[in-house]
Amino acid sequence: GENVEQHPSTLSVQEGDSAVIKCTYSDSASNYFPWYKQELGKGPQLIIDIRSNVGEKKDQRIAVTLNKTAKHFSLHITETQPEDSAVYFCAAPNGTSYDKVIFGPGTSLSVIP
Amino acid sequence: GAVVSQHPSRVICKSGTSVKIECRSLDFQATTMFWYRQFPKQSLMLMATSNEGSKATYEQGVEKDKFLINHASLTLSTLTVTSAHPEDSSFYICSARVTGRYGYTFGSGTRLTVV
Question: Least crowded by CB within 10 Å, which of A39, A44, A90, B50?
């Protein structure tokens, strides 16, 4: 089955700086990679996703890049703001079935004002 | 669109009692819902997949007699923690995927504390 690793586990950045979180996956058949943001005491919220037919996707200050050859994908947040502070999870489907995803262990991001 | 409503948000129960958690898809039909458990500072662990009109599929190591899942309609799935013990205290979250779309919509989670 799929195995998803995520680094770093914690990340602190100054407000305005960029933050990068990287995930690796094991199943080369996986073709959909979402990122979720979870604030304390709340459920995860999808913030961006990418399919394997593209290498990069951007939505305002956040972007995701995918390297299928190396089996890794990264979340990039530019011009970070204090409200970006949260736990971020990457995920990958278990094979080609979108009905089951495996989550990475999470990255706790702190943006220091 | 694609909102999943989860209730209650917090519940405290006595050891040995049962607790029911509800998840409703408000603006779409969810043939499949997923139930996760999350311990503090840990990732989401899939407990079971709930299919409308049929038995749930449990992940390895999850006791199906303890975590009863019912998905009686296309908009409602429930998780009942039976004979709860303090070690069942956790954050329980449901999710669903809109057919034809990628990505999952999560409920807001239920903080269960068993005393």
Answer: A39
CB contact under 8 A, A44 and B44: yes
Q: Hey, is the C-beta of B111 within 8 angstroms of any chain A C-beta?
A: yes
Each of the 113 residues of chain A gets a pLDDT tens digit; together they read 788 999 999 999 999 999 999 999 998 888 889 999 999 999 999 999 998 878 999 999 999 999 999 999 999 999 999 999 999 999 998 765 656 788 999 999 999 99
Q: Closest Cα to residue A111, out of A80, A87, A72?
A: A80
CA A39 to chain centre: 14
* B97: chain A residues, CB-CB within 8 Å: 98-99
Residues A110, A61 contacting (CB under 8 angstroms): no
Q: Does B35 touch chain A (CB under 8 A)?
A: no
Handedness of CA A50, A54, A59, A63 (dihedral sign): positive
Q: How far apart are CA A42 and CA B102, in angstroms?
A: 21
Contact of B60 with chain A, judged by CB distance below 8 Å, is answered with no
